[in-house]
Amino acid sequence: MKVSFLPLLALVVSTVFAAEPFISNAQTTDNSESEHQHTNNWAVIISTSRFWFNYRHMANSLSMYRTVKRLGIPDSQIILMLSDDIACNPRNAFQGEVFNNADRQLELYGDNIKVDYRGYEVTVENFIRLLTDRWPKEQPRSKRLLTDENSNIFIYLTGHGGDEFLKFQDAEEISSYDIADAFEQMYEKKRYNEIFFMIDTCQANTMYSKFYSPNIISCGSSALHESSYSHHSDTEIGVAVIDRFTYYTLEFLENITTTSKSTLQDLFDSYTYEKIHSNVGISTELFNRDPKDVLITDFFGNVQKTVIDEPSENLLYVYDGDEIDYSAETKLRKVYDVSDSKRPNATTKSSIRNTSFGSNNVITLAWKENTDYFYSYALTAMIIVTFLFAYNKL
Fold this sequence. Notes:
This protein is of the alpha/beta class. Helix content is 30%, strand content 19%.
């Protein structure tokens, strides 16, 4: 008697596909949840100018530094580069102080700033090395950008610029190509998740025109052949104390808290020609999200996504001691009554992990794991063996 093999094959295949969701569902969930998420925030804030008449550039940088710290990014994750020749300059009527407004209500320098690169350390070479992490082994960790593929980075530059170049300390220049290639190295080395690049200089929008790496959103204060203007001067200080673009950016950010739902699009919409006196540029071509879906705190804050590791329904909690603190144990989602148990069986010690719980030491015993996988594959194997046996008999 000849038996067709097709019905058998169809049954086996359908059984295997029935077991597939147990595997694929967990994988697809993890992948989808990981998209656009970050676990840490960093900020790189640089004033590329020096000398007294560039007071406003240092005030710009210190203002941004204060803002990201207020919104939660710690000093250990902020790289601040300043010429640092303003606060103690002989021309400064307010020695040891820097202000960003003529009313001098907010002092920016004080004792709470941590300058990572100062004076002649603010160079093009050090900036590129910082981004790409190409340092000699003696470079201290506190002066490095220790980011990874889950890092969102806010990069702010201010100073004097031109068509696709930015001056560093009136001694050298960096081009838009240099920064673009540095970002590409960062991408290849998995040193960022997303970058928000902001620059306040003359012809600022030309500085991000050559970027080609993914997940970078850029914002500049002025278009090609346009200047970036100061906002106002302080008659006692004698020079301009802040630039217009940074002033109105800070005005918007002052209303932001760590729980704010404001987005980058809200910030971009706040810029007008009447305020800035130049055409603010926005580049989103390399970014894979719409700015209206990107929270301000994704870059200016340090709001981390927390995953709560709740006890599994299949875990048995066994107390390792003489007495049980039931008041503490009730905090667990599910606890079995094991008051008569002392220590777990020696044969199960390989699957035990110690956890701190109140004043007691609770031992968690995982006695059932991955049963869905086991039953699915066992059922598949049994069906295959049974039908192959029947087929051979026939």
